[in-house]
Structure formats: C-alpha cells, structure tokens
Amino acid sequence: MGQEQRPKDSDEQIAGLERVLQTLREEENVEVLLETTLGYLQAEFDWRLIWIGLYDRQAHRLFGKGGMTPNGDLSFLKQRFALSPGDLLEQVVIQLRPVGVPDLRSENRAGEWRKAAQTFNIQGTTLFPLRYKDRCYGVILLGTEVWGASPNSGEKTQLAIVFGALATALYQIEKDWQRQQVKHPDESLLALISQLRELRSLDQYLEAVVEQAHEFIEPTRTNVYWFERERRYFWRRVSNRQVAPGLGLIRPASGITVQDLGEFYQALAREEIVWIGESHSSLKTELTGRLMQQIRARSLLAAPIVLEGELLGFLAVEASDPRIWQDNEKHYLRGAGQLVALTAPLSEMEERIEQIEIDRDLTAGIARAIYSDADWEATLKNTAEQLCSRLKCEYFLLLLYREEQNRFEIVSQNLPRNRRPVPSPLGALDAADVGLLDDRAEPLAIENWEEDGRLGAWREVLAEAGVRSLLASSTRGKKSERENPNRKSQIANRKSIEGLLVVGHSATRTWRGSERELVRVVSQQLGLILHSWQQSSEIDKYQQFERSIKSGLAVLQQSGEQQSGQQKSAASPKMFPELPLQKLDRNFAQHVSLTMNSPLVAVITWNPGQESGSISAVVAANPVFALNPEAVIPVQTDPLIQQTLVVNGVLQQSMSELPLATKRWLRSPGIGEILAVALRTSPEHAPVGIVVVADAQGRQWSELSVNLLSSMASQLAWWRRYLAVQSAQESQRSDLELLNWYKQRRFEDFYRTVGAGVKELGELSQSILQSAKEQKDALKTLRYQQVLRQIGNALGSIHLVLKQEQWRLQFAQDAVPVSAWLRRSLDRTAPLVKQSEILLEVNRETAVSLPAGQTLSVRADSIKLDLILCELLAQACRRSGVGDKIEIRSVLLGEDLLELSVIDSGRKCDRQLLAAFNGGSGPDILAVVSNRSIVQNLLICQRAVRLMGGDFSLEILENNLIVVRLVLPLATS
C-alpha cells in the first residue's frame, strides 16, 4: 500500500520499532501491551479504523479491547463477536494468516463489521492474527477509506514483527498464568524474560540464559555453542565458567566439529532436542560416544537455537555423571533456546539491514549489466567474481540444459587458479534430483557431499575439481502448478529446467537463508541470458526445421517423379519387378536419420486389408541397431503398431516398455528409446504404415524434432498415397486406352462387314425385284442368305463386346493357326496395300516338323491378334513409299515360342516417335503432334501382346529398315 505509513526516515522507523518491541518484551500487563501496540499503530501509520480483539478459546469468540474509529466512538469496538463457520474473523483465527478485503462494506462474510464499515466508510481492510506458533491470541483489524488498499511488503514485515512480539508477550502471560495455576517450576523462564528490559546485547542475554538454566537444572556445566557456518563447527560462546570438581584439571572442549557428528547436527537442524543420559540416548550409540568424548562429559541435554529455519547454535547442559533428564528440564531448555532465537535477530538487525542493502546493490548491478551490456561473457565473469566475493565461495558454474542430449553444458565457470576447469558437459541427473531442483522454491543446498547423496551424477567430476559443498538453483524458479508434468505428452511442458547456477566451496559449509535467497535471485537474473541464448538456438533450430522440410520435400518429390516415370513404362509387372516405392521409403529414412541424428529409422508398410506388414526401408548407423528386413509383422496384433495408430501424433516409448510381441522384430541391442508415428493422410483414409525412429537409452527428443518427424511422416504418407492413386489411375488409363483402341478397330471391322453386306443386299434385292414375274434364281437366293448370315455373325460378335467387355478387355486363350491368322490379316489389309502400291511378301520357316494332322498355332485371343497384326501392317504401309516392300517373316524360337517379324523400309518414319516408343512413354499429351496416335497405338499393341503372354518390340536396323517383332507362345495340343 505504501501510503498508509507516515513519512519517516529508516532510523526513526527502526527506533520506533525498537521502542515498541522493548515495551512488548518487558511489559507484563495486557492492557499496557494493547495500549502500546495501539499507540504505535497510530503513531507510525495512518489507518482510519483500528480494532484489537482478543480470542477466547473456550467460548470461541473475540472480545474487543478497543482501538480507533473515524468519529471517535469506541462503543462498537468494545463488543464481543461470536465466531461462526464461514465468517471472515473465524477464517483469520483458524488459518492464522492475514486476510485482505478490498471493500469491507460489501463483504458478506464480515457480519457486523460490514455495517460498521458502511457507517465509517471503510473499504480496504486487512485482518492480522495475533499468532504464536499454532495458537491464536487475537485479531487486529486495520481499515482505510481507499478501495483495495493493503500494506506493502515492508509494512507487512514491520507489522509482523510487532504483532509477533505482542503475541509472544500474550503467550508468555498465558504461560505465566498457567504456571501459577498448576504451580510448575517455570519461574526461571519468567525471571529470564523479565531481564530482557535490562539487557542490551546478545552476549549479555546469553549469559543470563546460561545462569538461569544452570540454576534451574543444576548440571556440571552450562554452555551456549554458536555455529560457524563456513567452517561447520560449534564454538563455545558463553559458559557458566565453572569447573566440575570431579574433572580436576580437565577443561571442557572449546568447540565441537560437525564432520564426524552429522546425526547430531541434523537433529538440531530439525529443531529436535538432543539428550544423552544414563542408559538412554536420542542418538546412535557410536555417535554418542564420539560426542561425549569431545565435550568431556557423561550426560548431555542440548536444545537448538533456530531462527527462520537456520540453526544458530544450541544451549547445552552437561553433567559429569550419568543422569536421567526429566521432561520439565527438557521443556525448560527448549524454551530457553527459543527465547535466545527470538532475541538474536534484534541484536543483528543493523548487520542484517546492511547485508540486505549490499545484496540489493549486487542484484541491481547484475540486472543493469544484463540489460545494458552486449558482452554477456564479461557480464557473467563480473557476476561470478562479485557473487563469489559476497558468499566467500570459490566455485561458480552456470549450466545450460541441452534437452535432446539430456546433459548440462557449462556456459561459464569461475574456479580457483590452481584448479583445472570442470569438463563440459556434465551428465544427466536422475529423476529424483531433477524433481528436487524443479520443485524447490529455494536453491538445493549440500553442506557436505560426503554425507549427502543428492546430485550423485556430478559428485565425482566436481569432487575432482575440489567442490565439497554447494548451492544449486534453477534459473527458471519454481515450476508453476498449472504446468503439465506429463513427460510423455507431445512434448508440451516437458522441459522444466532451462539452466542451473551452481556455487560451491572447497570445504564443508552451511549456507544461510540470506545466501540461498541471493543465489536464487541471481540465478533467475542469469536465466534471462540463458533464455536469450535458448531463443537464439530455437530460431536456428526452426530455420533448420524449415530447411529440413524443404529438403525432405525435394527428396520425396525426386523419388516420386522417378517412380512416376517408371510407372508410365511399367506396362506389365513381370517386365518391371523392382518396386520404386522402396526407393522412396529408403530416401525418406536416410533423410530422417540425417536430420534427427538418429542411428535407426525404419519404415513399416502394408497394403490395405493385409494382415501382415514388412520393413520396406531401414537405415541403421551401425550393426547394433540393425533389423531383420525379412521380418513378417502382424499388423492387427502388434502392440506398437496398434498404439501408434491410436495415438494422434508421435508415440514415445522406452524399449523396456515394449511387449514381447514387438520385440520379436524390433530387437536390436542398441535400441533404448523409440519414437513412432503413423503414415496418416486424411481421417477417411486408413493408415498403411508407421515410421519408427530409435536411439540409445537416455535419448530425449526435443519438441522440434518430434514436430519434424510428424511433418515428414505426413509428407511421406501423402506422397505414397499420391503415387498409389497415380499408379491406379495410370493402370485404369492404360486399360481404357486399350479398350478404346480395341472397340474402335472392332467397330471399324463391323462397319466394313455390315457395310459390304448391306451394299450386296441392295444389289441382290434390286436384281430380285426386276425378275419378280420370272422364276427366282436359286444362286441369288443362296447368296442373299449368306450375306444375312455374315451380318448376323458380325452383330453377334459386337453383342459379346458390348456385354462382356464394357470396361475391361477379356483375353481368350485360343489356339490360333498361324496360316489362318496371316490369311485373315492379309485379306483385311489388301485394299491398303493395293492403294499404297506396295509389294507384300510372306516368308515362313520351312524346317518345322509337326505331327500329322496338326498345324502351327499360337496361344492367344484370335480376334485381338488379328487386329494387332492388321495395325502393324497398316502402320508399315504408312511408313513405306510407292514400290517399297513389306516382308513378313515367321520363325520358331525353341520349342515354345514363335517370332513374327514385320519389316518395312521406314522411308516415311519419324525417328523421334520411334525413340519415344522405345523410351516407354508416349509424346507429351499437351504437345501439338499430328501423328501422336502412331506411338500410342504401338504402345497399346505392345500392352495387349504382353497381357496375352507374349512380347512386342520395335527397332531400326543399320540399313534403316524398321523391324516389328511379335513373340507369341505356341499352342500345345
């Protein structure tokens, strides 16, 4: 809030605070305590409403003790307020925490105070509990006329000290009253408290505590040991200066080292009282002996002196004889230790304020350097020197966490001159240590690494550098509760640690709370530098991601274009057994392996509806990651495949998590961590494969790498689908071209047959009509019937084409006599040969021996074979000039094949078209080429011959003759 405190300098504030605390410590009258507190609040602050109420535990209510109102009417403040569940006052009493209310006038839980606030026009209100440990002694209400006003942090601290002292005083008054009632022997502590008004230094107070404790417990010796943090030992600060009669000249130890008494130190740090007496001890036997040997006593009762979680020392009573310590003695000594702890900060307040100012200047200087200095290395060096000088430590390490490698890179280090640099990087920490660093609001403190098992992964390397104690703080601070802790999510919030600041010392050491807080603040400031570096690195990674995507597209596009070109020439799978998709998958696997720096990438694919898949491509960097390429993978039952298909993204698993069924095919010894993603396109398309990326145990992939894999897998899936659709469409187009050519030739033949028949019928009909009165000529009638039969046969043949070959040709396996086949083809092409004035010559092999009654026949579809030979003869005529010769040769190739060759001069042939035919593709469909159909028809004939089990080829001889060869299987009886 700030404006509620009256303007005063810090000395006046401290003086006023000291006066009121002194009064609260010395005064034993409740009314005086409350008046002192009220007077202090009125003098130091400018609240419009102040109310002090004390808590009655038995009646569960607050009774007002007065305060201040804007109009001076205090009657309302003297009332008693019953507490009910849900009330604002009860919340403060139960929870023992301050509660702020922006506008008390509209707070439904305020009860009667709401009406009072409306009367006094009070808005911003803060309620403070008078708390001592877990007990509430009352509530103080502070209100202003400003909406939402509340004390700032400095004012809260000031009020907490005053209210804490008031609550302490009330607690002591209550305890005194209880002691008087039950008559416990606690007068010694009361007498000790009464001396607070006369004592001005901590040493004086310690002497008083020692004298009172020695008088009450009556041990041999009473000492106060103070803890030296840097050298980790307890030194005797105050003693009763008595020597035990039985010890003679033996003097008590002046100090106790912690190195061999770790359990004793840890018990005190946990605020536990330590007692060693006759046949009983709160420590282990071995440790008890060493401790008693150091202090040279036979019985011990020690109470810790702890302030804000820091062990300042302990109050000890020692006896030279075995002794059984009573409970009231333990309670008394604990109380005395706590009184010392309450007094200690007051004696060191000036020193603490000075140290806070020094730390503030240090952190402010670091912040200015970060925001103004472009030379971050110089900034880190100066920060390391200043921090080490302030903490009196020797080691400074700033670590940057590399997520993918799961290790810590040393960005900056400052070591003693006689020490070698700590080698970078440092190895990965185990999950427990990461959790400690991530969840703690303050740095992780290790006082003695020989007794502490935390950060064990770094113990050896840092111990070689001389580190024995350290502070480690995350540069990100405490993890937000809203973050998702799931490590297996698609990498959202997986990276909780960005960097660490480690300061260390070559000796065992205890770290103060102020030192831990300073390291925490500096680590978060340096985290800005690390975060800037990380952002720069992320930018580089995203640029690499973009380049990888582009290069991946280029790799897939190149492979796809090569496959597309091969598909166009793949008229028959028998002639092209290599699967171009394998090259596409192999190029993809190589690219992913290079981009993600992964030693194993495998592509597992299957056809839709298949129950088993195979490894279509695998890239293994070394034999320990090799897979069996012949493995058969059950798609429907394999756990890894099914989990990958269910997950909408990238699946990450460890090898130890995989079921045995998957390990049967994914069983390389080097595999430790696995990423798997489905080859998925649209939701309506079923996935036809997965991609598996693997690396050694401990590998962690960044979110960028996972996104890259997901994008590349999507590209591969779409390319595979594009090529599959293109292949299907190419096959359908080829089938339709073949069907179109076949129907075109059949309808041409049908038109020729029916046209000739109709013409002849017309002539016969005219002849019959002219001789109607005469006897009809029997020969003309017979011819008339023959023509009708030919037309009927032609119609029947066309009917089968229309019925059975609507969308795909049906190839019959007829035994076609070669001589009849040649005769039919020659008869059909005779008009064209005559019109072209070309000489046609047929040469047949004479050395053919066949059994009696058999003719030379080939196994094929008779009708389609006729059309193919007619097409070849027609094209040979078009390529030949007047007077040229076309030769037909037939020769046997072994016992199973017949080769039929058509040879022409090729005088009118376009060599480019023939080259295009032999190249396996037709001319550009968009190019303007008048004779494009020549190559297209040849390719169709070639496809038809191959579908009938034969072969078709075309070549140009050295003498420029063109030879078309048909190789057909012979028909066997």
Strand content: 15-25%
Q: Please, what is the oligomeric state? A: single chain
Shape: elongated
Regions with pLDDT < 50 over 5+ consecutive residues?
243-250, 480-494, 563-578, 925-930
Largest sheet at a glance?
Answer: 7 strands, antiparallel
First CA to last CA: what distance? 112 Å
Can you count the beta strands?
Answer: 31
Percent range of helical residues: 40-55%
- Order of strands across the widest beta sheet? 9-8-7-13-12-10-11
The structural class is alpha+beta
**Average predicted confidence as pLDDT:** 79
State the helix count. Answer: 24
Computed Rg:
51 Å
Short descriptors:
single chain; 973 residues; alpha+beta; 24 helices; elongated
